[in-house]
């Protein structure tokens, strides 16, 4: 059930009306209705995997209670929960990858590959489960005794398909208190959803056929066209994923919930570390807390070399999280290597506020350089295998790089320019269409303009989001 589909519009309209107008004064009843909606939303994709979601929630709920007892078997319960959560993810997402890699390495005939369907949102809800158990173990969170609140936390439908990855400390307390709908929050949510829909339906979906054509036929195209495809894919993926996040956060806001911010205008990043602080924030902050920080502590005796190793391993995990393919592992490793100069020059944590109006030449140069690094790595992200990725790199670094690229369309460049301009104007705000500070006439004109673009240029045939596959 895609956020941009008519089915979801009807589903959410009915749900919203009942949630606020009939159950608005009873948050317990709202929670029961919300849980039912979560499960309907999930079952619409495949009801069989709803059993896995509910079963996993039951197991983690009771393990959380056992960990909270703080007895001699506390470590055992934590490890069992981690083994179950990670093991389930490894089986569904990586089993065939491990088998195929092992058999290819030793030249063994492979009879073990299975037809495994990847459950919707498993990477996202598994990370919620893992952080929940670890936070209880580290006394950062109390074990949840309210089963209804906990089951809603794991299956929360706005964040199910592609995140954000909310931690229990943020969402669980909100599920246990009365929620109030205000016109201010509702208006802000509507703005965020509108901009998310524009990014997805107009920008991402308009670019998708072009990049698909380029990457599927790269062998017959010039290096400049393949490089242009990588640049376009950056904007396609940004519009697609940040568009989903805007809609997810806005939908949650309409229900009275504050969820994790997932993007902070990464197109204006000044270096690769700044980019990852602004891109898929819920994932990078999750891995920073539960993977990178423990690695830094473990390697602290090795000074900068230890920090480099921690960064490298963290990004290999980020790459592998994205998919069971060597291209994603190399993608993550390349991101880790990008950090080496920053670590050497002690710039990994340096932050700088951007100019208010027009970027300086230095800021603009940093943006272009950082996005060039990102686009170079994205070739690995889109390639079906390493052979194809190296073929694309071979094209890019050929003499045909200096030719005029194909598939340049003024409409596409104009739509990208609209996103960049709106993002730049609101780069210090909570989201791209956070324009409540503007005059009402300006605001309404922009709303009408975006709605017009959605109705006139929107591509409604492609409702899937890129990050659903992860």
From TrEMBL:
Family: Belongs to the membrane-bound acyltransferase family.
Pfam families membership: MBOAT
Recorded GO MF terms: acyltransferase activity
Name this protein carries in UniProt: Acyltransferase
Keywords for the protein's UniProt record, in alphabetical order: Acyltransferase, Cell membrane, Membrane, Transferase, Transmembrane, Transmembrane helix
Stretches that traverse the bilayer: 5-22, 42-64, 76-96, 116-134, 221-239, 279-299, 306-322, 328-346, 367-386, 406-425, 446-467
Coiled coil, from the record: none
Localization, UniProt: Cell membrane
Organism: Chryseobacterium angstadtii
InterPro entries assigned: Ac/AlaTfrase_AlgI/DltB, AlgI, MB_O-acyltransferase, MBOAT_fam
Membrane protein topology class: Multi-pass membrane protein
The organism's place on the tree of life at top rank: Bacteria
């Amino acid at each position: 059930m895609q956020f941009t589909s008519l089915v979801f519009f009807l589903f959410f309209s009915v749900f919203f009306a009942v949630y606020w107008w009939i159950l608005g004064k009873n948050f317990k009843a709202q929670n029961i209705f919300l849980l039912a909606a979560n499960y309907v939303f999930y079952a619409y994709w495949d009801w069989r995997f709803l059993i896995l979601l509910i079963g996993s929630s039951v197991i983690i709920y009771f393990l959380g209670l056992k960990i909270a007892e703080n007895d001699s078997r506390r470590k055992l319960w934590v490890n069992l929960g981690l083994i179950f959560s990670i093991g389930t993810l490894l089986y569904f997402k990586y089993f065939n990858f491990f088998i195929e890699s092992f058999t290819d390495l030793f030249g063994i005939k492979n009879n073990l590959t299975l037809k495994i369907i990847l459950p919707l949102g498993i990477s996202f809800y598994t990370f919620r489960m893992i952080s929940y158990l670890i936070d209880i173990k580290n006394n950062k969170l109390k074990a949840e005794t309210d089963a209804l609140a906990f089951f809603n936390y794991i299956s929360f439908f706005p964040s199910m398909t592609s995140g954000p990855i909310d931690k229990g400390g943020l969402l669980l307390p909100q599920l246990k208190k009365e929620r109030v709908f205000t016109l201010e929050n509702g208006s802000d949510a509507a703005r965020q959803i509108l901009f998310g829909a524009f990014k997805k339906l107009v920008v991402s979906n308009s670019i998708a056929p072009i990049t698909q054509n380029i990457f599927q036929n790269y062998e017959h195209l010039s290096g400049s066209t393949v490089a242009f495809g990588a640049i376009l894919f950056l904007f396609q993926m940004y519009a697609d994923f940040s568009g989903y996040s805007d809609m997810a956060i806005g939908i949650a806001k309409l229900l009275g919930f504050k969820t994790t911010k997932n993007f902070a205008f990464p197109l204006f990043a000044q270096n690769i570390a700044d980019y990852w602080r602004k891109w898929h924030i819920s994932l990078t902050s999750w891995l920073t807390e539960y993977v990178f920080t423990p690695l830094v502590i473990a390697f602290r005796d090795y000074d900068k070399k230890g920090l480099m190793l921690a960064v490298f391993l963290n990004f290999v995990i980020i790459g592998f999280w994205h998919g069971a393919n060597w291209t994603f592992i190399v993608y993550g490793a390349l991101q880790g290597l990008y950090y080496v100069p920053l670590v050497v020059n002690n710039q990994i944590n340096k932050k700088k506020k951007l100019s208010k109006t027009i970027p300086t030449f230095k800021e603009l140069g940093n943006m272009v350089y950082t996005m060039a690094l990102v686009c170079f790595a994205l070739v690995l992200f889109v390639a079906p295998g390493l052979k194809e990725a190296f073929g694309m790199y071979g094209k890019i670094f050929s003499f045909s790089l200096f030719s005029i690229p194909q598939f340049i369309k003024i409409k596409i460049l104009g739509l990208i320019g609209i996103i960049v301009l709106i993002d730049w104007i609101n780069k210090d705000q909570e989201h791209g269409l956070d324009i409540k500070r503007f005059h009402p006439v300006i605001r309404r004109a922009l709303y009408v303009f975006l709605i017009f673009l959605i109705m006139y240029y929107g591509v409604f045939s492609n409702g899937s989001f890129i990050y659903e596959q992860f």
